[in-house]
User: Fold this.
Amino acid sequence: MRAGPLLMTRLGLLLVLGSLILSAPTAWGEPMEVWNTTYGGPGHEVGGMISEAGDGGYILTGMTESYGAGNCDIWLLMIDSNGSRVWDKPFGGPGIDVGAEVQRTSDGGYIIAGYTTSSGAGGKDAVLVKTNPNGDAEWMRTFGGRGDDVASSVREANDGGYIFAGSTDSHGIGKGDLWLVKTDQSGVEEWNRTFGGPGDDEGLAMLEAEDGGYLIAGRTDSYGSGGYDGWLIKTDHEGAIEWERTFGGSKQDGFTSIETARDGGYVICGFSNSFGAGDYDVWLIKVGSEGNLEWSTTFGGSAGDFGNSVRGSDDGGYIVSGWTSQSGSRTSPDEALLIKVSSNGTEEWRKSIGGDGVYSGISALQTRDGGYLLSGFSNQHSAGGFDFWVMKLI
Assistant:
């Protein structure tokens, strides 16, 4: 359905340390490793999108070949603040089931967005899984038609229902359209909206705005300057478009994550082949509340560098995670990246994590003690193939 750099971001989970090191921070303020752990079995575990759990621990999702019922299943993994596994649960059927994002819900449970070929109307169908606080499934719903349909990002709505953004080949007017779907508390669809043109368009990240509407970030081949462009859409609470903006140049650009800024604007990260120093660079932009560009910056060298997530830090700046390709491949990860930037986008420090194999940074967040967690997947110190991977730094 799609090719290019997105194959190794959160939507490309399918395609592709046990050691403990205690160190003090350097004079430059760059954090040092505290612990470094992988999680998995004899097969591949790919993904590792991380969010906070309610008890000081953390929750991750992606896919597993080691556990569950099918070729690969959605995997939900709970760890404590020291990185120890608390519990893990697979969800799926005989086909392919992948979790792209997980969020804690107001009742203490979790909502997972992803896709499945085990059930639904045909091809890939978007899937939502709602669990209780112990990770046991309460319900599982599929959405889609005969084409490929994917849920990339999910949030609990103000009314207790759920909203997800993704992409659809089954609906809309183009090759693939950005897709926004609203459900009730039980996962029953209330409405869905498609956005796009004759090209390939997709939503990769979303959040709820203060006015009850929604911000969706992704990429578009239908509009913009050329190739894929980063795409930002603002809707009202019923999914009607209020405004949209494209950002990019003549080559391939896209957004993978969005975060609300303290001033009411938004910070968006992704990748750019149009700007920067290398083949692809990590791309970070700041827009105002109406989507007008305030600043844009890139991070990277001569290799391919990709941003997967951005989250706010306690000092008003941002934590960006991603990966870099050092071996010459344009779209395959070698080292994970963790970049700290100020509120105006100035780089404060950058940390690369690598070895003899593969490390891919999928997401990061700041911990309550002022440290950082970087999560993703790696084939180093794994139980077999790729494993989920989390590193604590302080």
Observations:
- The chain has a mean pLDDT of 92.
